[in-house]
Design a protein that fits this description.
Number of helices: 17
CATH superfamily: MFS general substrate transporter like domains
CATH class: Mainly Alpha
Order of helices and strands: HHHEEHHHHHHHHHHHHHH
Shape: globular
Structural class: mainly alpha
Number of strands: 2
Low-confidence stretches: 3-7, 469-474
Strand content: under 5%
Mean pLDDT: 86
CATH architecture: Up-down Bundle
CATH topology: Growth Hormone, Chain: A
Largest sheet: 2 strands, antiparallel
């Protein structure tokens, strides 16, 4: 018997697994959020009119991310999350570095332009796809049902915290402040962020195993606690694809996630430019960086609180369905109200507070939604989670494009009103047009989020996929 098995108390290796998952989650949002923060700088360097001209680069990431979510989730279910996650992080780290090369001029030669940037962001999205479905599969293997929503809440809290921290890091490292000088160029920052992924891979490969029984430091007590109530099931059962895509409660789950992501994606893309253009926030202002990251800071606590409330309701005797649904439903309704209020806020701080509260309430649903993937998916958890994130990517892609189109139309309408062209608009006229565009987008977010609250009520965590006789061994 392994010496660890002679211990009288249960080991806690599952929390090491959770820590690794949280670090990975944070890295995904660091590399995503840095593009949104860098967008105003990229616009100037590429000689573009506004951040709306980057809509194809923004949309390309979301399209690729959505296209490859399900295949990469299936790989995790089939081969285990360890190998798949290492491949994912190596791939996206490489294309994070390449993002910093777009428009680079060497000896008078420009290394790629906007088209190159669009292709790189597409490949970045393809590489990062599957990260969260495979994290969900890892947590499904390592955590019992009563701890999964909390674990998912912590994972997404880590993502949101890092997303919120990124504008502040960017200000200190790249933009500089009144008290500090920039330490890196924006290109060097993308290089550093890419190298962090390689460092994570080295630790993860050494410390993580796909299942508790494969890890030499997991003792019998912890293994029994994790596996309690699970029945043996086929290791590689065929995926019931029709049910995965068309089972009504899963369709409601996917539709809800599409709708909440539509509005939330604004925080990762257009928010920094909105604060700078609509409210005159200086790019080097520390408080401005805090406002840019505010939705993700508060969203982090929303993820944590929503996950804890979900598990607490389940432990207190609520049904699995309502313990997963209730916190998220209340949060989504309040989120929709906050978007509506944010559209009319007169100052940067009032707007930042409203949009941050929208993110806080939005993220109440995260823990319950991802735990529902495990509840319903069983041995096909990563596939179901992949479809869930594909729905989110569809929402992000459409939002990235439509939001840019709304801004473009506002600029064109202003130009027609003045019998001019967009390029000839004064700074004040351009700002006035963009304000109208941003307000319109926020009202659209409020309406679509209200739809999310309605369809979320149709998702039932107690309705498992057919042929689910137990929990997976893989």
């Amino acid at each position: 018997m392994h010496p660890a098995n002679r211990m009288t108390s249960a080991s806690r290796i599952r929390y090491q697994v959770l820590l690794l998952a949280c670090f990975l989650s944070a890295l995904t949002y660091l590399d995503r959020a840095c593009f949104g923060v860098a967008a105003p700088t990229i616009v100037k360097e590429f000689g573009l009119d506004s951040v709306a001209d980057l809509k194809w680069a923004i949309t390309a990431f979301a399209i690729a991310y959505g296209l490859f979510e399900v295949p990469t989730g299936w790989w995790g279910d089939r081969f285990g999350p360890r190998k798949v996650l290492i491949r994912i992080v190596l791939w996206w780290s490489f294309f994070t570095v390449l993002t910093g090369l777009a428009g680079w001029k060497v000896a008078g030669i420009t290394f790629g332009g906007l088209t190159f940037l669009i292709v790189v962001r597409f490949m970045f999205g393809a590489g990062e796809a599957g990260a969260f479905p495979n994290i969900a599969r890892a947590l499904q293997n390592w955590f019992p049902p009563a701890e999964r929503a909390r674990a998912q809440g912590l994972v997404w809290m880590s993502a949101r915290l890092m997303g919120g921290l990124t504008p502040l890091l960017w200000t200190f490292l790249v933009a500089g402040t009144s008290m500090t000088v920039p330490l890196l160029t924006w290109r060097q920052a993308f290089l550093v962020f890419g190298l962090l992924g390689l460092f994570w891979c080295l630790i993860f490969a050494r410390r993580f195993r796909d299942r508790p029984e494969q890890h030499p430091q997991v003792n019998d007590l912890e293994r029994a606690y994790i596996l309690a109530g699970r029945q043996p099931s086929p290791k590689h059962a065929p995926v019931p694809w029709a049910s995965v895509f068309f089972q009504r409660n899963l369709v409601c789950l996917y539709a809800m996630y599409f709708c909440i992501t539509y509005g939330w994606y604004f925080n990762m893309t257009y928010l920094p430019a909105c604060l700078e253009r609509r409210y005159g926030v200086d790019p080097s202002d520390i408080f401005g960086a805090v406002m840019k990251g505010g939705p993700l800071w508060l969203g982090a606590f929303g993820c944590l609180l929503g996950g804890f409330l979900t598990d607490a309701l389940l432990k207190r005797g609520s049904s699995l369905r309502w313990s997963r649904q209730l916190p998220g439903f209340v949060g989504i309704v309040l989120c929709s109200i906050c978007y509506f209020v944010a559209s009319g806020m007169p100052s940067a701080w009032s707007f930042a507070l409203a949009i941050s509260l929208a993110a806080f309430f939005n993220d109440f649903v995260i823990g319950g939604a991802w735990a529902t993937c495990s509840d319903v998916g069983g041995k096909h958890t990563a596939v179901v989670a992949g479809v869930l994130n594909t729905a989110a990517s569809a929402g992000a892609a459409i939002a990235g494009w439509v939001s840019g189109v709304v801004l473009d139309r506002a600029l064109n309408a202003k130009a027609r009103l003045l019998d001019s062209t967009v390029g000839e608009l004064s700074a004040d006229d351009r700002t006035a047009a963009l304000v109208v565009g941003y307000e319109t987008n926020l009202l659209i977010f409020a309406a679509i989020t209200a739809v999310a609250a309605i369809v979320w009520l149709g998702a039932n965590a107690e309705r498992r996929l057919p042929e689910q006789c137990g929990e997976p061994e893989a």
